[in-house]
């Protein structure tokens, strides 16, 4: 299991498996956000299989499939809502953790400085500098 904390309440990860759920619970996570569309992954890791396993382990499970290179405002708002409603630390996963970092940064535009929203994921190799204009735009809109 390899998760990368962006903050003390939000971490990202490549695809997780059902077998990793007890360790994620032991690590303190309470909510899992699935940012992978089912078309990318084998049936045993698809949303409903993961939801059943995660909920059986006591997690809140949110499906918010993000298509690489095509993040929507709906994805951003759904991620923001899931983070806001979480009762504890959140783990979001996708193929590498990059999409989960992107929607986190966009969801937090206006709440944190843009430099932090880009710099925190960069510590783990996620390059979000290309989103600077979009983060700043969302921050202005949220005013």
From TrEMBL:
Sequence ranges assigned to domain Beta-lactamase hydrolase-like protein phosphatase-like in this UniProt record: 3-110
One MF term in the entry's GO annotations: hydrolase activity
Protein origin, superkingdom: Bacteria
Coiled-coil positions: none
InterPro entries per record: BLH_phosphatase-like, Prot-tyrosine_phosphatase-like
Annotated protein name in UniProt: TIGR01244 family protein
UniProt source species: Cereibacter sphaeroides (strain ATCC 17023 / DSM 158 / JCM 6121 / CCUG 31486 / LMG 2827 / NBRC 12203 / NCIMB 8253 / ATH 2.4.1.) (Rhodobacter sphaeroides)
